Amino acid sequence: MTARLMRIEGMTCAHCEKTVAEALTGAGARRVVVDWRRGEARFDPAGTGEVELATAVEAAGYRVRSIQEVAEEEHGVEPLVGERSGSYDLVVLGSGSAAFAAAITGTEAGARVALMEANVVGGTCVNVGCVPSKAMLAAAETYHRAGHHPFPGIRTRAEGVNLGALVDSKAELVERLRTEKYLDLAESYGFTVCRGRAEFVEGGTIACDGERITAPRFIVATGASPAVPPIPGLAETGYLTSTTALELREPPRELVVIGANAIGLEMGQLFLHLGSQVTFLELAPRIAPFEEPEVAETLQAVLAQEGARVVTGAKITSVARREGRRVVTLEQNGQVEAIEAGQILVATGRRPNTADLGLERAGITTTERGAIQVDDTLRTTNPRVWAAGDVTGHPQFVYVAAYEGDLAARNALYGEARKVDLTALPRIMFTSPTIAAVGLTDEQAAASGVACTCRVLPLSAVPRALVNRDTRGFVKIVAEAASRRILGATVVADGAGDVILAAVYAVRFGLTTDQVASTWAPYLTFAEGFKLAAQAFTRDVSRLSCCAA
User: Fold this and answer.
1) Is 16 a known active-site residue?
2) Which of these CATH numbers, 3.10.20.740, 3.20.20.70, 3.50.50.60, 3.30.450.40, describes 228-348?
3) Does 454 qualify as catalytic in the annotation?
4) Of 118, 187, 220, 465, which has the fewest Cβ atoms less than 10 A away?
Protein backbone atom coordinates (compact mmCIF):
# COMPACT_ATOMS: atom_id res chain seq x y z
CA MET A 1 0.00 0.00 0.00
CA THR A 2 1.30 3.47 -0.85
CA ALA A 3 0.83 6.76 0.93
CA ARG A 4 2.01 10.33 0.43
CA LEU A 5 4.73 12.15 2.34
CA MET A 6 4.33 15.94 2.39
CA ARG A 7 7.29 18.00 3.57
CA ILE A 8 6.11 21.23 5.18
CA GLU A 9 7.81 24.42 6.35
CA GLY A 10 6.50 26.60 9.16
CA MET A 11 5.30 24.08 11.73
CA THR A 12 6.65 25.09 15.15
CA CYS A 13 4.57 23.21 17.73
CA ALA A 14 2.12 20.39 18.36
CA HIS A 15 -0.75 22.76 17.67
CA CYS A 16 0.57 23.10 14.12
CA GLU A 17 0.29 19.32 13.78
CA LYS A 18 -3.41 19.52 14.60
CA THR A 19 -3.93 22.43 12.22
CA VAL A 20 -2.22 20.69 9.30
CA ALA A 21 -4.02 17.43 10.04
CA GLU A 22 -7.40 19.17 9.98
CA ALA A 23 -6.49 21.02 6.78
CA LEU A 24 -5.58 17.77 5.02
CA THR A 25 -8.60 15.91 6.40
CA GLY A 26 -10.88 18.77 5.39
CA ALA A 27 -9.51 18.59 1.85
CA GLY A 28 -10.30 14.87 1.66
CA ALA A 29 -7.15 13.06 2.84
CA ARG A 30 -7.42 10.07 5.16
CA ARG A 31 -5.15 8.42 7.70
CA VAL A 32 -3.29 11.65 8.34
CA VAL A 33 -0.31 11.63 10.71
CA VAL A 34 1.66 14.87 11.14
CA ASP A 35 5.04 15.37 12.84
CA TRP A 36 5.98 19.02 13.38
CA ARG A 37 9.51 18.25 14.52
CA ARG A 38 10.27 16.39 11.29
CA GLY A 39 8.26 18.88 9.24
CA GLU A 40 6.20 16.26 7.47
CA ALA A 41 2.77 14.71 7.09
CA ARG A 42 1.93 11.17 5.97
CA PHE A 43 -1.51 10.43 4.59
CA ASP A 44 -3.67 8.54 2.13
CA PRO A 45 -4.86 11.09 -0.48
CA ALA A 46 -8.08 9.08 -0.96
CA GLY A 47 -8.45 10.34 -4.51
CA THR A 48 -7.81 14.00 -3.70
CA GLY A 49 -5.31 15.74 -5.98
CA GLU A 50 -1.92 16.82 -4.68
CA VAL A 51 -2.51 20.43 -5.75
CA GLU A 52 -5.74 20.58 -3.76
CA LEU A 53 -4.06 19.08 -0.68
CA ALA A 54 -1.11 21.47 -0.91
CA THR A 55 -3.49 24.40 -1.32
CA ALA A 56 -5.36 23.42 1.86
CA VAL A 57 -2.13 23.27 3.87
CA GLU A 58 -0.85 26.58 2.49
CA ALA A 59 -4.21 28.22 3.20
CA ALA A 60 -3.59 27.25 6.82
CA GLY A 61 -0.41 29.34 6.80
CA TYR A 62 2.31 26.79 5.99
CA ARG A 63 4.56 26.17 2.97
CA VAL A 64 4.53 22.84 1.16
CA ARG A 65 8.01 21.97 -0.07
CA SER A 66 7.27 18.64 -1.74
CA ILE A 67 4.89 15.68 -1.97
CA GLN A 68 6.12 12.21 -2.78
CA GLU A 69 4.76 8.69 -2.88
CA VAL A 70 6.03 6.39 -0.14
CA ALA A 71 5.32 2.95 1.21
CA GLU A 72 2.93 3.08 4.14
CA GLU A 73 4.83 2.47 7.35
CA GLU A 74 3.91 -0.42 9.60
CA HIS A 75 5.13 -0.26 13.17
CA GLY A 76 3.95 -1.00 16.65
CA VAL A 77 2.08 1.18 19.07
CA GLU A 78 4.27 3.86 20.65
CA PRO A 79 3.13 4.96 24.13
CA LEU A 80 3.33 8.71 24.72
CA VAL A 81 2.30 8.27 28.33
CA GLY A 82 2.23 5.10 30.41
CA GLU A 83 3.53 1.63 29.76
CA ARG A 84 2.83 -0.61 26.83
CA SER A 85 0.76 -3.63 27.79
CA GLY A 86 -0.25 -6.77 26.02
CA SER A 87 -3.86 -6.40 27.10
CA TYR A 88 -6.23 -3.76 28.39
CA ASP A 89 -9.65 -3.82 30.03
CA LEU A 90 -10.79 -0.78 28.04
CA VAL A 91 -9.41 0.71 24.84
CA VAL A 92 -10.55 4.18 23.79
CA LEU A 93 -10.13 5.52 20.26
CA GLY A 94 -9.36 9.23 20.59
CA SER A 95 -7.81 11.46 23.25
CA GLY A 96 -10.13 14.42 23.63
CA SER A 97 -12.53 15.34 26.41
CA ALA A 98 -14.78 12.29 26.03
CA ALA A 99 -11.79 9.94 25.85
CA PHE A 100 -10.06 11.41 28.90
CA ALA A 101 -13.25 11.38 30.96
CA ALA A 102 -13.68 7.72 30.06
CA ALA A 103 -10.04 6.95 30.90
CA ILE A 104 -10.21 8.69 34.28
CA THR A 105 -13.42 6.89 35.22
CA GLY A 106 -12.00 3.58 34.03
CA THR A 107 -8.73 3.99 35.89
CA GLU A 108 -10.55 4.94 39.09
CA ALA A 109 -12.47 1.67 38.71
CA GLY A 110 -9.19 -0.22 38.64
CA ALA A 111 -9.27 -0.98 34.92
CA ARG A 112 -6.25 -1.04 32.61
CA VAL A 113 -7.05 1.68 30.07
CA ALA A 114 -5.34 2.77 26.85
CA LEU A 115 -6.14 5.65 24.53
CA MET A 116 -5.22 5.53 20.83
CA GLU A 117 -4.53 8.90 19.17
CA ALA A 118 -3.48 9.32 15.54
CA ASN A 119 -2.43 12.95 15.85
CA VAL A 120 -2.25 15.41 18.74
CA VAL A 121 -3.43 14.53 22.23
CA GLY A 122 -6.28 16.63 23.56
CA GLY A 123 -8.91 16.59 20.83
CA THR A 124 -10.77 19.61 19.51
CA CYS A 125 -11.39 21.70 22.61
CA VAL A 126 -7.86 22.41 23.82
CA ASN A 127 -6.15 22.29 20.41
CA VAL A 128 -8.38 23.98 17.83
CA GLY A 129 -11.72 24.70 19.51
CA CYS A 130 -12.81 26.21 22.80
CA VAL A 131 -9.46 27.25 24.25
CA PRO A 132 -7.73 28.84 21.24
CA SER A 133 -10.87 30.43 19.79
CA LYS A 134 -11.98 31.99 23.07
CA ALA A 135 -8.44 33.23 23.74
CA MET A 136 -8.47 34.98 20.36
CA LEU A 137 -12.03 36.25 20.85
CA ALA A 138 -11.06 37.82 24.17
CA ALA A 139 -8.10 39.56 22.55
CA ALA A 140 -10.17 40.82 19.62
CA GLU A 141 -12.89 42.10 21.96
CA THR A 142 -10.32 43.99 24.02
CA TYR A 143 -8.91 45.61 20.90
CA HIS A 144 -12.36 46.54 19.60
CA ARG A 145 -13.47 48.08 22.88
CA ALA A 146 -10.31 50.16 23.03
CA GLY A 147 -11.59 52.01 19.98
CA HIS A 148 -15.33 51.70 20.59
CA HIS A 149 -16.54 52.28 24.13
CA PRO A 150 -19.57 54.26 25.35
CA PHE A 151 -18.11 56.23 28.26
CA PRO A 152 -17.78 60.00 27.98
CA GLY A 153 -14.59 61.53 29.33
CA ILE A 154 -12.50 58.41 28.68
CA ARG A 155 -10.07 58.39 25.78
CA THR A 156 -8.59 55.13 24.54
CA ARG A 157 -7.04 54.13 21.24
CA ALA A 158 -6.79 50.90 19.26
CA GLU A 159 -3.38 51.35 17.69
CA GLY A 160 -3.03 48.23 15.56
CA VAL A 161 -2.98 44.46 15.60
CA ASN A 162 0.01 42.13 15.59
CA LEU A 163 -1.97 39.02 14.81
CA GLY A 164 1.15 36.88 14.66
CA ALA A 165 1.97 37.73 18.28
CA LEU A 166 -1.59 36.84 19.32
CA VAL A 167 -1.37 33.52 17.48
CA ASP A 168 1.96 32.71 19.14
CA SER A 169 0.55 33.56 22.56
CA LYS A 170 -2.49 31.41 21.87
CA ALA A 171 -0.27 28.50 20.80
CA GLU A 172 1.73 28.76 24.04
CA LEU A 173 -1.48 28.64 26.07
CA VAL A 174 -2.70 25.63 24.11
CA GLU A 175 0.55 23.74 24.56
CA ARG A 176 0.62 24.45 28.29
CA LEU A 177 -2.96 23.30 28.83
CA ARG A 178 -2.44 20.24 26.64
CA THR A 179 0.48 19.26 28.83
CA GLU A 180 -1.12 20.08 32.19
CA LYS A 181 -4.66 18.89 31.52
CA TYR A 182 -3.95 15.90 29.30
CA LEU A 183 -0.43 14.42 29.20
CA ASP A 184 0.43 15.15 32.84
CA LEU A 185 -3.04 14.07 33.89
CA ALA A 186 -2.70 10.73 32.12
CA GLU A 187 0.61 10.12 33.86
CA SER A 188 -0.90 11.05 37.23
CA TYR A 189 -3.83 8.65 36.83
CA GLY A 190 -1.69 5.93 35.31
CA PHE A 191 -3.45 5.13 32.05
CA THR A 192 -1.67 4.73 28.72
CA VAL A 193 -1.85 7.13 25.77
CA CYS A 194 -0.55 5.66 22.50
CA ARG A 195 0.40 7.44 19.30
CA GLY A 196 -1.05 5.52 16.41
CA ARG A 197 -3.85 5.29 13.86
CA ALA A 198 -6.39 2.71 15.04
CA GLU A 199 -9.08 0.85 13.15
CA PHE A 200 -11.27 -2.14 13.88
CA VAL A 201 -10.33 -5.37 12.14
CA GLU A 202 -13.15 -7.32 13.79
CA GLY A 203 -15.64 -6.96 16.62
CA GLY A 204 -13.18 -7.14 19.50
CA THR A 205 -9.87 -6.26 17.86
CA ILE A 206 -8.26 -3.11 16.53
CA ALA A 207 -5.11 -2.63 14.52
CA CYS A 208 -3.05 0.34 15.61
CA ASP A 209 -0.22 1.11 13.20
CA GLY A 210 0.13 -2.56 12.34
CA GLU A 211 -0.19 -3.97 15.85
CA ARG A 212 -3.32 -5.87 16.83
CA ILE A 213 -4.88 -5.09 20.20
CA THR A 214 -7.75 -7.09 21.66
CA ALA A 215 -9.91 -5.88 24.53
CA PRO A 216 -13.26 -6.85 26.05
CA ARG A 217 -14.55 -3.28 25.78
CA PHE A 218 -13.99 -0.30 23.50
CA ILE A 219 -15.17 3.30 23.41
CA VAL A 220 -15.02 5.32 20.20
CA ALA A 221 -14.44 9.00 20.99
CA THR A 222 -12.84 10.32 17.80
CA GLY A 223 -14.70 13.63 17.71
CA ALA A 224 -15.60 15.66 14.64
CA SER A 225 -13.99 17.89 12.02
CA PRO A 226 -15.18 20.92 10.02
CA ALA A 227 -17.74 19.97 7.38
CA VAL A 228 -17.32 21.52 3.94
CA PRO A 229 -20.35 21.85 1.66
CA PRO A 230 -20.06 20.67 -1.98
CA ILE A 231 -20.09 24.15 -3.50
CA PRO A 232 -18.72 24.15 -7.07
CA GLY A 233 -15.21 25.62 -7.15
CA LEU A 234 -14.79 25.88 -3.37
CA ALA A 235 -12.13 23.20 -3.00
CA GLU A 236 -10.12 24.50 -5.96
CA THR A 237 -10.36 28.10 -4.80
CA GLY A 238 -9.24 27.43 -1.24
CA TYR A 239 -10.93 28.31 2.02
CA LEU A 240 -10.44 28.66 5.75
CA THR A 241 -12.08 26.59 8.48
CA SER A 242 -12.44 27.45 12.15
CA THR A 243 -9.14 25.60 12.62
CA THR A 244 -7.03 27.16 9.90
CA ALA A 245 -8.43 30.67 10.42
CA LEU A 246 -6.90 30.68 13.91
CA GLU A 247 -3.45 30.33 12.34
CA LEU A 248 -3.62 33.43 10.11
CA ARG A 249 -0.87 35.90 10.94
CA GLU A 250 -2.52 38.84 9.18
CA PRO A 251 -6.23 39.74 9.30
CA PRO A 252 -7.76 39.46 5.82
CA ARG A 253 -8.85 42.75 4.36
CA GLU A 254 -12.17 41.21 3.34
CA LEU A 255 -13.64 37.99 4.67
CA VAL A 256 -16.74 36.11 3.52
CA VAL A 257 -18.16 33.78 6.17
CA ILE A 258 -20.31 30.94 4.85
CA GLY A 259 -22.64 29.97 7.67
CA ALA A 260 -23.97 32.22 10.45
CA ASN A 261 -24.59 29.93 13.36
CA ALA A 262 -22.33 29.64 16.43
CA ILE A 263 -18.95 29.05 14.78
CA GLY A 264 -19.50 31.41 11.87
CA LEU A 265 -20.78 34.22 14.07
CA GLU A 266 -17.93 33.89 16.57
CA MET A 267 -15.17 33.66 13.99
CA GLY A 268 -16.64 36.33 11.76
CA GLN A 269 -17.00 38.82 14.59
CA LEU A 270 -13.45 38.01 15.74
CA PHE A 271 -12.04 39.20 12.43
CA LEU A 272 -14.55 42.05 12.28
CA HIS A 273 -13.14 43.31 15.58
CA LEU A 274 -9.60 42.96 14.22
CA GLY A 275 -10.43 45.26 11.31
CA SER A 276 -11.56 42.95 8.50
CA GLN A 277 -14.53 43.79 6.29
CA VAL A 278 -16.83 40.85 6.95
CA THR A 279 -19.81 39.53 5.01
CA PHE A 280 -21.93 36.75 6.55
CA LEU A 281 -23.82 34.45 4.18
CA GLU A 282 -26.54 32.26 5.68
CA LEU A 283 -28.83 29.91 3.75
CA ALA A 284 -31.55 30.00 6.43
CA PRO A 285 -33.99 32.92 6.66
CA ARG A 286 -32.15 34.29 9.71
CA ILE A 287 -28.79 34.03 11.45
CA ALA A 288 -28.57 31.80 14.54
CA PRO A 289 -31.52 29.94 13.00
CA PHE A 290 -32.07 27.50 15.88
CA GLU A 291 -32.44 30.17 18.55
CA GLU A 292 -35.21 32.65 19.34
CA PRO A 293 -35.92 35.13 16.52
CA GLU A 294 -35.06 37.97 18.91
CA VAL A 295 -31.49 36.63 18.96
CA ALA A 296 -31.14 37.06 15.22
CA GLU A 297 -32.74 40.50 15.33
CA THR A 298 -30.45 41.73 18.10
CA LEU A 299 -27.19 40.28 16.81
CA GLN A 300 -27.81 41.29 13.20
CA ALA A 301 -28.30 44.88 14.37
CA VAL A 302 -25.06 44.66 16.37
CA LEU A 303 -23.10 43.30 13.41
CA ALA A 304 -24.48 45.99 11.12
CA GLN A 305 -23.56 48.65 13.66
CA GLU A 306 -20.01 47.26 13.71
CA GLY A 307 -19.76 47.43 9.93
CA ALA A 308 -20.53 43.88 8.83
CA ARG A 309 -22.94 42.86 6.10
CA VAL A 310 -25.38 40.00 6.73
CA VAL A 311 -27.11 38.21 3.85
CA THR A 312 -29.74 35.62 4.79
CA GLY A 313 -31.58 33.29 2.45
CA ALA A 314 -28.35 33.15 0.44
CA LYS A 315 -27.86 30.14 -1.82
CA ILE A 316 -24.23 29.99 -2.90
CA THR A 317 -23.94 28.65 -6.45
CA SER A 318 -20.17 28.79 -7.05
CA VAL A 319 -16.80 30.01 -5.83
CA ALA A 320 -13.92 30.99 -8.11
CA ARG A 321 -10.60 32.82 -8.24
CA ARG A 322 -10.25 36.03 -10.19
CA GLU A 323 -6.95 37.90 -10.36
CA GLY A 324 -5.76 36.48 -7.06
CA ARG A 325 -9.05 37.12 -5.25
CA ARG A 326 -11.95 34.86 -4.36
CA VAL A 327 -15.39 35.43 -5.82
CA VAL A 328 -18.53 33.99 -4.24
CA THR A 329 -21.62 33.90 -6.45
CA LEU A 330 -24.98 33.61 -4.73
CA GLU A 331 -28.70 33.83 -5.34
CA GLN A 332 -31.06 35.68 -3.03
CA ASN A 333 -34.71 36.40 -3.70
CA GLY A 334 -34.21 35.62 -7.38
CA GLN A 335 -31.27 38.01 -7.70
CA VAL A 336 -27.70 36.93 -8.53
CA GLU A 337 -24.77 38.64 -6.84
CA ALA A 338 -20.99 38.15 -6.89
CA ILE A 339 -18.99 39.08 -3.77
CA GLU A 340 -15.20 39.47 -3.89
CA ALA A 341 -13.00 38.81 -0.88
CA GLY A 342 -9.46 37.95 0.08
CA GLN A 343 -10.50 34.94 2.17
CA ILE A 344 -13.48 32.64 2.61
CA LEU A 345 -14.27 31.03 5.96
CA VAL A 346 -16.48 27.94 5.83
CA ALA A 347 -18.50 27.49 9.03
CA THR A 348 -21.26 25.08 8.06
CA GLY A 349 -21.00 22.66 10.94
CA ARG A 350 -18.82 19.67 11.82
CA ARG A 351 -18.96 16.04 10.69
CA PRO A 352 -18.22 13.04 12.92
CA ASN A 353 -14.78 11.46 12.45
CA THR A 354 -15.87 7.95 11.47
CA ALA A 355 -14.01 7.40 8.19
CA ASP A 356 -11.29 4.72 8.14
CA LEU A 357 -12.19 3.33 11.57
CA GLY A 358 -13.22 -0.03 10.13
CA LEU A 359 -16.62 0.30 11.79
CA GLU A 360 -18.31 -1.97 9.27
CA ARG A 361 -15.84 -4.78 10.12
CA ALA A 362 -16.88 -4.49 13.76
CA GLY A 363 -20.60 -4.44 13.01
CA ILE A 364 -20.95 -0.83 14.10
CA THR A 365 -23.72 1.06 12.31
CA THR A 366 -23.57 4.75 11.40
CA THR A 367 -26.42 7.18 10.75
CA GLU A 368 -27.18 8.95 7.49
CA ARG A 369 -25.03 11.85 8.69
CA GLY A 370 -22.08 9.57 9.36
CA ALA A 371 -22.36 9.56 13.15
CA ILE A 372 -22.04 6.36 15.15
CA GLN A 373 -25.47 5.03 16.02
CA VAL A 374 -25.87 4.57 19.76
CA ASP A 375 -28.74 3.75 22.10
CA ASP A 376 -29.66 5.72 25.22
CA THR A 377 -26.76 4.10 27.09
CA LEU A 378 -24.24 5.02 24.36
CA ARG A 379 -23.86 1.40 23.28
CA THR A 380 -23.33 0.84 19.58
CA THR A 381 -24.72 -2.00 17.47
CA ASN A 382 -21.66 -3.98 18.61
CA PRO A 383 -22.35 -4.93 22.26
CA ARG A 384 -18.64 -4.62 23.14
CA VAL A 385 -18.33 -1.06 21.82
CA TRP A 386 -19.67 2.24 23.13
CA ALA A 387 -19.29 5.74 21.63
CA ALA A 388 -19.20 9.17 23.24
CA GLY A 389 -18.96 12.83 22.30
CA ASP A 390 -19.14 14.51 18.91
CA VAL A 391 -18.73 11.23 17.00
CA THR A 392 -22.27 10.29 18.10
CA GLY A 393 -23.89 13.30 16.46
CA HIS A 394 -25.11 14.56 19.84
CA PRO A 395 -24.87 18.29 20.70
CA GLN A 396 -21.28 19.31 20.11
CA PHE A 397 -20.31 20.86 23.43
CA VAL A 398 -17.19 19.82 25.30
CA TYR A 399 -19.18 19.36 28.52
CA VAL A 400 -21.48 16.92 26.70
CA ALA A 401 -18.44 14.98 25.47
CA ALA A 402 -16.96 14.73 28.97
CA TYR A 403 -20.31 13.71 30.46
CA GLU A 404 -20.78 11.01 27.83
CA GLY A 405 -17.22 9.71 28.19
CA ASP A 406 -17.78 9.17 31.90
CA LEU A 407 -21.21 7.60 31.33
CA ALA A 408 -19.92 5.26 28.59
CA ALA A 409 -17.06 4.06 30.80
CA ARG A 410 -19.41 3.39 33.71
CA ASN A 411 -21.77 1.42 31.50
CA ALA A 412 -18.92 -0.50 29.87
CA LEU A 413 -16.98 -1.38 33.04
CA TYR A 414 -19.59 -1.51 35.77
CA GLY A 415 -22.29 -3.15 33.66
CA GLU A 416 -24.60 -0.24 34.41
CA ALA A 417 -27.29 1.00 32.05
CA ARG A 418 -27.20 4.72 32.70
CA LYS A 419 -29.04 6.70 30.05
CA VAL A 420 -27.98 9.97 28.48
CA ASP A 421 -30.03 12.83 29.92
CA LEU A 422 -29.59 16.16 28.18
CA THR A 423 -32.38 17.87 30.10
CA ALA A 424 -31.60 21.53 30.73
CA LEU A 425 -28.48 21.46 28.55
CA PRO A 426 -27.15 25.04 28.20
CA ARG A 427 -25.91 26.33 24.86
CA ILE A 428 -23.77 29.37 24.26
CA MET A 429 -22.28 31.51 21.51
CA PHE A 430 -19.31 33.66 22.50
CA THR A 431 -20.28 36.61 20.36
CA SER A 432 -20.38 40.16 21.69
CA PRO A 433 -22.86 40.41 23.30
CA THR A 434 -22.86 36.76 24.33
CA ILE A 435 -25.82 34.50 23.52
CA ALA A 436 -26.82 31.81 26.01
CA ALA A 437 -29.93 29.66 26.19
CA VAL A 438 -31.42 26.58 27.81
CA GLY A 439 -34.50 24.47 27.28
CA LEU A 440 -37.22 25.13 24.73
CA THR A 441 -37.61 28.17 22.53
CA ASP A 442 -41.05 29.70 22.07
CA GLU A 443 -41.36 27.96 18.70
CA GLN A 444 -40.22 24.58 20.04
CA ALA A 445 -42.66 24.72 22.93
CA ALA A 446 -45.55 25.48 20.58
CA ALA A 447 -44.48 22.69 18.21
CA SER A 448 -44.48 20.20 21.09
CA GLY A 449 -48.09 21.05 21.86
CA VAL A 450 -47.40 22.86 25.11
CA ALA A 451 -49.53 25.92 25.79
CA CYS A 452 -46.92 28.46 26.77
CA THR A 453 -46.53 32.11 27.58
CA CYS A 454 -43.42 34.27 27.18
CA ARG A 455 -41.90 37.51 28.38
CA VAL A 456 -39.06 39.42 26.73
CA LEU A 457 -37.23 41.86 28.97
CA PRO A 458 -35.03 44.39 27.13
CA LEU A 459 -31.64 45.10 28.71
CA SER A 460 -32.74 48.71 29.04
CA ALA A 461 -34.73 47.44 32.03
CA VAL A 462 -31.65 45.91 33.68
CA PRO A 463 -29.67 48.40 35.85
CA ARG A 464 -26.33 46.66 35.19
CA ALA A 465 -26.73 47.26 31.45
CA LEU A 466 -27.58 50.92 32.08
CA VAL A 467 -24.44 51.58 34.12
CA ASN A 468 -22.39 49.70 31.51
CA ARG A 469 -23.88 52.00 28.85
CA ASP A 470 -24.68 48.97 26.71
CA THR A 471 -28.31 47.85 26.46
CA ARG A 472 -27.90 45.64 23.40
CA GLY A 473 -29.71 42.46 24.35
CA PHE A 474 -32.60 40.96 26.30
CA VAL A 475 -33.76 38.19 28.63
CA LYS A 476 -36.58 35.94 27.45
CA ILE A 477 -38.40 33.30 29.48
CA VAL A 478 -40.71 30.65 28.02
CA ALA A 479 -43.13 29.22 30.60
CA GLU A 480 -46.00 26.77 30.63
CA ALA A 481 -49.18 28.86 30.55
CA ALA A 482 -51.13 27.03 33.27
CA SER A 483 -48.41 26.50 35.88
CA ARG A 484 -45.83 29.11 34.80
CA ARG A 485 -43.20 26.39 35.07
CA ILE A 486 -40.11 27.63 33.23
CA LEU A 487 -39.49 25.61 30.04
CA GLY A 488 -36.69 27.66 28.52
CA ALA A 489 -34.77 30.90 28.64
CA THR A 490 -32.50 32.97 26.44
CA VAL A 491 -30.10 35.71 27.52
CA VAL A 492 -28.25 38.07 25.17
CA ALA A 493 -25.88 40.22 27.21
CA ASP A 494 -22.33 40.49 28.46
CA GLY A 495 -21.89 37.58 30.82
CA ALA A 496 -24.92 35.72 29.47
CA GLY A 497 -23.04 32.46 29.89
CA ASP A 498 -22.86 33.06 33.63
CA VAL A 499 -26.47 34.22 33.93
CA ILE A 500 -27.84 31.17 32.12
CA LEU A 501 -26.79 28.85 34.93
CA ALA A 502 -29.68 30.17 37.03
CA ALA A 503 -32.03 29.33 34.18
CA VAL A 504 -30.46 25.86 33.87
CA TYR A 505 -31.39 25.20 37.50
CA ALA A 506 -34.88 26.58 36.94
CA VAL A 507 -35.52 24.30 33.95
CA ARG A 508 -33.83 21.28 35.52
CA PHE A 509 -35.75 21.44 38.79
CA GLY A 510 -39.09 22.71 37.46
CA LEU A 511 -39.12 26.15 39.04
CA THR A 512 -41.92 28.55 38.21
CA THR A 513 -41.64 32.20 37.31
CA ASP A 514 -43.24 33.06 40.66
CA GLN A 515 -40.55 31.15 42.53
CA VAL A 516 -37.75 32.88 40.61
CA ALA A 517 -39.42 36.27 41.02
CA SER A 518 -39.53 35.83 44.81
CA THR A 519 -35.88 34.66 45.10
CA TRP A 520 -32.93 36.88 45.96
CA ALA A 521 -30.90 38.34 43.11
CA PRO A 522 -27.83 40.56 43.68
CA TYR A 523 -28.38 44.13 42.56
CA LEU A 524 -26.39 45.59 39.69
CA THR A 525 -25.64 42.27 38.09
CA PHE A 526 -26.86 40.83 34.82
CA ALA A 527 -28.14 37.88 36.86
CA GLU A 528 -30.78 40.23 38.21
CA GLY A 529 -32.19 40.38 34.68
CA PHE A 530 -33.40 36.79 34.99
CA LYS A 531 -35.39 37.68 38.12
CA LEU A 532 -36.79 40.82 36.47
CA ALA A 533 -37.91 38.78 33.45
CA ALA A 534 -39.70 36.39 35.83
CA GLN A 535 -41.33 39.33 37.59
CA ALA A 536 -42.57 40.57 34.22
CA PHE A 537 -45.11 37.72 34.14
CA THR A 538 -47.14 39.46 36.86
CA ARG A 539 -45.84 43.05 37.08
CA ASP A 540 -44.88 45.97 34.90
CA VAL A 541 -41.17 46.07 35.77
CA SER A 542 -40.82 49.49 34.15
CA ARG A 543 -42.81 50.82 37.12
CA LEU A 544 -40.44 49.38 39.73
CA SER A 545 -37.77 51.47 41.41
CA CYS A 546 -34.22 50.51 40.49
CA CYS A 547 -33.79 47.93 43.26
CA ALA A 548 -37.40 47.13 44.17
CA ALA A 549 -38.35 43.57 45.06
Assistant:
1) yes
2) 3.50.50.60
3) no
4) 187
